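New to this. Explain these C-alpha cells.
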Amino acid sequence: MANAFDTQWTCFDVGLEGQVAHIRLNRPDAFNAMNRAFWNELPAIVGDIDDNARARTIVISSTGRHFCAGMDLDNFAGIGGGEGGDGARTVDRWTAAEASREHLKSLQDAFSCLDRARMPVIAAIQGGCVGGGVDLTSACDIRYASADAFFCIQEINIGMTADAGTFPRLCRLIPQGWVRELAYTGRRLPAERAREIGLVNEVLPDHDAVVAHALAAAAEIAGKAPLAVAGSKAMINYAREHDTETALEHLRVWQAGMFAGPHMAESFQAKREGRAPQFPDLAPVRRGM
C-alpha cells in the first residue's frame, strides 16, 4: 500500500502535523460531493495510516463553503432504468439485488474504517454536512462544528432511505426522536442544536476556528500513551455494542494482556521531571500473508 502522505489523491489532501494526520476533503467547487474516487480513496488513506501507525490521531476537515454535499449525483446515473445487462450477459433483478447488496457493503466499509481505526478520528465540520457527510461524521469519535454548520439526512428528500451508516450510528449518538424527525422530514439540524443534543462536542465561530480547535484536541490526545488511547477506543466501541457484564469481561481480558506498567511509569516520571512523556507508537499491523 502506498504511503498516504506521499500519494496524490483526487478527492483529498493528506498531511502530517506533528503526530496528527490531517485529511482534508478537497473538491470545494463540487461542495466536496462524494464521487466514485472518494469511496476508494478514503478507506485507502485511513487504512494506511492505521495499519502503519503513521499518526496517533486523525483529523478530517474540508475546504470551501460546505463540509460535504453528500453523494455526487453522477453516481446515480442509470438508476431507475429497469433491468439491463453488461455486454452479452443478462442480469436479472434477483442477482442484481445480490450484487447491489455487496456494493452497498463496500460503501458502508468506507466509513466503518473510521470506527475501526485504532486511533481516534476527529471531524471538523463547516457549512453543510449533508447525506453521506452525516454518515462520515457519525463514524468519527468526536465532532466539532462551526457556527454556520448544519446536518441534513438528505436521502429522504431524493426518495431513498439513508443506507451507508447514518441510522445505526446516530441512534447511539442522539435521542431516537431526533433521529426519526431528521430522517422523516429531511430538515436541517443547526450546529447549536446539534451541540445541545450531543451530536457535536463544541461549536466554534467559523471554519478556521473549528479546524484549529480540532487540531489542538488531536495534538492533546497524541501526547497521551497511544496504547492507552487505542485501548480506550476499543473498549468504548465494544461497550457500545454489548451489555455491561460482557463489556466488563472484555475489559478484563484486554487489561490482562496489554496493561503497560512501563508506560505508566513514564507518565509518573515525566510529571516529576516537568517534561512531556515519551511513549512508543503503536506497532504496524500485518494484514494477510
Notes: The chain is about 45% helix and 15% strand. Confidence is low (pLDDT under 50) at residues 81-86. The first helix runs from residue 36 to 51.
